[in-house]
Amino acid sequence: MFRDYIELRNLAPVADILAQMTDWPALYDMERLANNEVPIYASIYVDDMETASKIKNCKTFITNAMYHDAIGAAGKSEEVFKQLFALREDVMD
């Protein structure tokens, strides 16, 4: 990907170094997420549902029509925010 897009080509050597690393720490503190006390509203692509399902107080708008760039994608951000605000208006269990 870093070689496919001219805007990212200068970052390709760094991306290669990072991709070679194997000693990354855990990305999430699952215990902390499971005990979360603040409301979270998330737009989630179908394939990313596993982590969100483990976060306490997380309401999700699940879609297979939008990807990780939906907020920045032309014509998609309005739909994402509309769905997220609708989640906020609903009472959490």
Overview in brief:
Helix content is 33%, strand content 13%.
Oligomeric nature of the chains: single chain
Strand content: 5-15%
Compute the gyration radius: what is it? Answer: 17 Å
- Largest sheet at a glance? 2 strands, parallel
Rough outline: flat
| Order of strands in the sheet with most strands | 1-2
> How many strands in all?
2
Q: Encode the helix/strand succession as letters.
A: HHEHEH
Helix fraction by DSSP (H/I, runs of at least 4): 25-40%
How does this model look, in words?
This protein has 93 residues and is α+β, with helices and mostly antiparallel strands. It is built from 4 helices and 2 strands. A two-stranded parallel ribbon has the order 1-2. Strand 1 (40-45), helix 3 (49-52) and strand 2 (58-63) form a beta-alpha-beta unit. The chain is flat. The relative contact order is 0.13.
